[in-house]
Amino acid sequence: MKINKLTDYSIVILTNMVIKDENGMHTSKELSEFSGIPLPTVTRILKMLSNEGLLESQRGAQGGYSLTKSPTDVSVAEVIEAMEGPIALTECASDDCGCAFEPSCAVGKPWQKINKAVNNVLQNINLSEMSVKDESQNLLKLTNVEEMSF
User: Fold this and answer.
1) What band does 47 get if pLDDT is binned at 50, 70 and 90?
2) Nearest to 65 by CA among 98, 103, 32, 107
3) Contact 148/121 with Cβ under 8 angstroms?
4) Residue 131 — pLDDT band, cuts 50, 70, 90?
5) What values do phi and psi take at 77, rounded to 5?
6) Is 141 exposed, middle or buried (0-12, 13-18, 19+ CB in 10 A)?
7) Terminal C-alpha separation, the chain
8) Are the beta carbons of 65 and 87 closer than 8 angstroms?
9) Where are the alpha helices (DSSP H) in 75-126?
10) Of 23, 31, 107, 133, which has the most beta carbons under 10 Å away?
11) Collapsed DSSP state (helix, strand, coil) of residue 92
C-alpha cells in the first residue's frame, strides 16, 4: 500500500498545525513555509480537507484554517479516507468486490482480514501521536504496534 503524495502532504500539514498550535488558525502561507510544501499544493490540500470536514476555514484578516476536532480524535485513517476514499489494499478488500473470480477465489477472505488489520492500525494512530517526537531516538513516536491486537 502506498498513499499518494497529496495524502502524505496532508498528514504533514495537519501534524504541523498540531505542533504549531492545535487550536489556532493557520494560513496557507504559514503552513507552506513551516512544512516546505509549495503554497499551491498546501492551498489545494487545505481546501480538500475543508470540503471533507476535517478543517474549517475563516475568511478575513484573522482568517485561515483550523481543525474541526481535537487532534486526538482525528486518525491517520480518517485523513487517508478524506484524501483518497476508503482504505482498500486490493479489490478483494471489500465484502462484495464484484470480481468475476470471487465465487472460486481462495484469497478474498484473507485479503479482507489483512485490510482490516491495516485499517485498525491506521485508525489507532491520531494526529497528536504523529506530532510527538521521541527525543531519545529522534523519531516520531507512534502507538506501540506490538500492543495492538489484529
Assistant:
1) very high
2) 32
3) yes
4) confident
5) -60, -40
6) middle
7) 18
8) no
9) 76-84, 108-123
10) 31
11) helix
Q: Which three cell numbers stand for residue 95?
A: 465484502
Q: In this predicted structure, what is the pLDDT of residue 5?
A: 94
* Backbone φ/ψ region at 69: left (φ over 0), alpha (ψ -120 to 50), beta: beta
CATH number of the domain enclosing 77: 1.10.10.10
User: Number of folded domains in the chain?
Assistant: 1
Q: Residue 97 has what pLDDT?
A: 65
Residue 26 DSSP symbol: B
CB 78 within 8 A of CB 72: no
With a CB cutoff of 8 Å and minimum separation 6, the contacts of 55 are 46, 49, 65, 66, 67, 68
Residue showing cell 513551516: 34
